[in-house]
Amino acid sequence: MPGIAPLSTGVIARIMHGEEVNQPVLQILGIKKINSNADSERYRLLMSDGQYYNSYAMLASQLNAMQHDGLLKENTIVRLDKYITSLVGKNDTDKRVLIVTDLTVLNSGAEVGKKIGEPVTYENALKNGAQSKPLASSSAPVQQNKPEKKPMLYNNNNNNTLNSSINAGLTSPIASLSPYQNKWAIKARVTSKSAIRTWSNARGEGKLFSMDLMDESGEIRATAFKEQCDKYYDLIQVDNIYYFSKCQLKSANKQFSQLKNDYEMTFTSDTVVQKCEEMDDGGIPEIKYDLVPISQVANMEDKTALDTIGICKEVGELQTFTSRTTNKEFRKRELTLVDMSNSAVTLTLWGDDAVNFDGHVQPVILVKGARINVFNGGKTLSMGGGSTIKINPDIPEGHKLRGWFDNGGGDNITNMVSARTGGGNFNTEWMTLQEVRLRNLGAGDKPDYFQCKAVIHMVKQENAFYKACPQSECNKKVVDEGNGQYRCERCNSLYPNFKYRLLINMSIGDWTANRWVTCFNEVGEQLLNHSGQEVGNALENEPEAAQAMFSAINFTSHIFKLRCKSEMYGDVTRNKLSVQALTPINYKEYNKYLLKSLKDLTGIGSSN
DNA sequence: CCCCCCCC
User: Least packed by Cβ within 10 Å: which of A257, A381, A451, A501?
Assistant: First the structure.
């Protein structure tokens, strides 16, 4: 059969003997779903090497999608790129389960069209005296073969017992754990660890912490309550590898966990945890980061979890507030992360992370599992369950960013993914400047936000900047003492210097109306394409340079994201517009709005 | 046995 990959004949005998075989090629003779309950999905495979077949094979759940896509039909020939074997069951009936964690389809079932060879079960072949020894191979076994004497005595809570099992190499892959078998030990890396949390409800009260564990086969969440919480909290550290045994397994509630496992673990009084001190990590993978460029965050769905890395360009004050809904007090701190996509996003830290954070050195921040929140039409990242941050991580991406930023890389951030320091072009209602008046926007307690396409008519150079407190966290206007000293009333300090901050008023117009709007520092810097320092200096000392900067933007068109709020000055109410963000015109998006407006106006092409 | 992840 030309084009059909040859099977690795007889290889199942070697695999089931614990030998590591590189990329065996097998044929799928059947696949069926086990565990029929709705939130648990797992497939069992019947696979043949043409000589033997093996029904104790499982598909790791991260490969379920291949089955969903119809890629694993009967007769399909696959190459096992990664797999793990594990002994399960009581000693006398030990079975070696094969868990496939990565595979490549070589020929589709339709292409092959039939079962190759006349395979028999490996177990029957053994009984009938067929060759049971592994064939000659230079590769070392991953796991020890089944020891002759009964080694797996987990009937007491004794570390020596655990050690002997572990030393014999008898750890199970996480993917093989289920509530139906409890004699196992896993060797896993801690990828995240929660803070200790207390609860109190009708069913009682207590405390707990949870952690996420990972090995080559998969991941699982574990929770330690009460006594176990106190006992293990300090021992468990992110990135370390531990042996765990005698935890209770139960179905995971998918509502609360994004981890790819149908089960989760609870520590019990019998649980044994032991730190793995070996230098060799034994194939336990490093924590993997799927780093998303900050610019991409704008295109991702609300509530998505993601990994990213950026420079903490700005850091906010620690804020404390009481939640209106729960009456709980929260502490948070907002960081502005920037990266080489010339984009910025806000990352919110909570609790101790927020309190202890020192951002003044503009560190590299690596974050795993941060969640997207939509706020004011922008997107922010927030730490939550399972999220971790690392400050100045020793990884190539971190060093690259450091070099980029220290050479001025962060000076031209043009894309503000979060609304506070800018904003995107998503989810914000389009409006004309006339509609803003007609609809009485900004009259409520909360500001209104909208976007419009407008052209800059005139920019005021007078009072376009002010002299602000030089402290990085304080932007209050300083009082010029006239003797080379500047006084900040907020910090109650005298300084020999100040920093320029922009506060630009300009007139913009669309086809319906003109309005005066205010740009604060960051947007002003983006608009004028110069730092506040440069603009302030030019305005004070180099009028021609300043003129050039300001006239360069006259009659340019942009998408303005505006905040609208009516404010009282004495007994006069003024409706104020401030520019939250400024973006180049995305004609695809803008035309969508125009087309919709046309439909609404004419009724042509509309549904009603 | 938790399952909240907040606020502007």
Answer: A257
Q: What mean pLDDT is predicted for residues A157-182?
A: 70
**Protein-proximal positions, strand B, CB < 7 A:** 1-8
The answer to whether residue A382 scores a pLDDT higher than 90 is yes
Query: Taking a C-beta distance cutoff of 8 angstroms, is the pair A187, A215 a contact?
Result: yes
E strand spans, A136-276: 185-193, 197-201, 204-214, 219-225, 241-251, 263-275
pLDDT in tens, A428-472: 688 999 999 999 999 887 778 888 999 999 999 999 999 999 887
Q: In whole angstroms, give the CA distance from residue A460 to residue A297.
A: 34
Cβ atoms of residues A199 and A205 within 8 Å:
yes
With H, G, I as helix, E, B as strand and everything else as coil, classify residue A444.
coil
Exposed, middle or buried: residue A39 (CB in 10 Å: 0-12, 13-18, 19+)? exposed
What residue is closest to B6 (Cα–C1')? A323
Whether the CB of A305 is less than 7 Å away from nucleic strand B comes out as no
Between CA A92 and C1' B5 the distance (Å) reads 48
Quote the pLDDT of residue A447.
79
Give the residues across from A139 on adjacent strands. Answer: none
The token pair that represents A45 in the structure block: 């495979």
**How far is it, in rounded angstroms, from Cα A231 to Cα A240?**
17
Residue A462: exposure state from Cβ atoms within 10 A (0-12, 13-18, ≥19) = exposed
* Span CA (A319) to C1' (B8), Å: 11
Q: Residue A606: what pLDDT? A: 56
**What are the φ/ψ torsions at residue A200 (nearest 5 degrees)?**
-150, 115
What domains appear along chain A, each with residue ranges and CATH number?
Answer: 11-127 (2.40.50.140), 152-275 (2.40.50.140), 294-416 (2.40.50.140), 433-464+503-594 (2.40.50.140)
The DSSP code sequence of A349-381 is: EEHHHHHH---TT--EEEEEEEEEEEETTEEEE
* Averaged pLDDT, A317-321: 79
C-alpha distances in Å from residue A465, one per residue of A65, A366, A462, A492, A546: 56, 35, 8, 22, 12
Q: What is the pTM of this model?
A: 0.50
Q: Six-digit token pair at A21?
A: 């075989």
What CA–CA distance (Å, rounded) separates A447 from A566? 8
Determine if strand B comes within 7 Å of the CB of A197. Answer: yes
Rounded to whole angstroms, the Cα distance separating A543 from A368 reads 48
Question: What tokens appear for A456 in the block?
Answer: 């800059």
Phi, psi of A227 (to 5 degrees): -60, -40
Q: Which two tokens stand for residue A560?
A: 């303005």
